[in-house]
Amino acid sequence: MKKNENNGPLWIVIGAVFWSFGGVCAKLIPWSGLAIASIRGIIAAVVIALYRRSFRFRLTKSTLFAAISLNLTTILFMMANKMTTAANAIVLQYTSPVFIIILSAIFLRERPKKRDLLAVVGTLFGVSLFFLDQMKSGNMLGNLIAILSGLAFACVFFANKLPGAHPMDATFLGSVLSFFLLPFVLADKQVFSTGWTPWVVILFMGVVQLGLGYIFFSIGIQHTSATTGNILATVEPILNPIWVFLVIGERPKFISLIGAAIVLTTIFIYNIILTRQNYQNKPT
To answer: What is each CA distance from 72 to 33, 103, 156, 188, 265, in whole angstroms?
Structure first.
C-alpha cells in the first residue's frame, strides 16, 4: 500500500499513456465508431472484472449516472475520431473542466470564481479556432461530437462527486453497458470482412488502452488529489496526436494546433492554480 501511495502520480501517468493510444488505434480499424466502442468496452469490462475479482457492482443513482456518462464519453469519442482529426477529438474532449464549472454552478449552486470564468473564456477562445479551421470542411460535425464527449466526460467527474458514488463500480458498469451496442457491431459488415489485423488492434484497445488504462488511473487517483490527477492526465491529449502522426501521418492544420495549445495551456494552468489553492487551504 505504501508503495502505491508513493507512486500515485506515476500510475496516473502510465494510465494516461495507455489512453493516448485510443486515437491511432481507432484510425487503424476500418469499423464504425459505435462498433469499436462496443467491442473495446466489452473486452475492458472483462479486464476490469478480473482485476476486481468480481462481476458485481453497487448500483446507486450516482453510480448509474457516472456509468452512463462514461459509456457516452467513449462512444462519442470514437465517433469523433472517425469524423475529424485525432488531435481535434482528444483536445475538444479535454474541455471537460469548463463543463464541470458550468454543471457545478447550475446544479450545486457553486458560484464560479474569477479563475473559473477566465478558464471558461480561455478554453472557449481556443475551441473557436478549431471551428474557424473547419468551417468549410466535413470535420465540423466531428468537432461538435468531440465537444459533446467533453460534456459527457465532465458528467463522469460531476457524478462521482455526488453522494452514493462509487467510481470503480461506475467504471466497470460503464464498460458493461457496451453490450447494448452489439447490434451496431452486427450491422457493420466491415467487422467480419477486414481480416484479423483489426481484431488484434481492438484486443489491444480493450485490454491495454482502456482496461489497464482505467485500472492504473484508478490506483493512482486513490493516492493523488483530483486536481493533480487532472494535470497529469493531460499527457493523453499531448501524446494522442503524436502517435497518430508517427503511425499514419495525420497532421492537424496550423490554426487547430494554435487552438489546441490555448485549450491545453488554459486547462493546465487552471489545474495548477487549483492545486496550489487546495494545498494552501489544507489544514496543517
So the answer is: 12, 17, 10, 19, 26
Domain count of the fold of the chain: 1
Q: How far is CA 281 from CA 45, 122, 130, 204, 284, in A?
A: 38, 26, 37, 42, 9
Task: Give the whole-angstrom CA distance, residue 56 versus residue 180.
Answer: 18
What pTM, to 2 d.p., does this model score?
0.86
Q: What is the pLDDT along the chain (284 residues), one digit of tens a residue?
A: 445 556 788 898 999 999 999 999 999 999 999 999 999 999 999 999 999 998 888 999 999 999 999 999 999 999 999 998 898 899 889 888 888 888 888 888 888 888 888 888 888 898 888 777 665 455 788 889 999 999 999 899 888 888 898 888 999 999 999 999 999 999 999 998 888 999 999 999 999 999 999 999 888 877 776 667 777 888 898 899 999 999 999 887 888 889 889 988 988 888 788 777 766 666 55
Domain that holds residue 183: 2-281
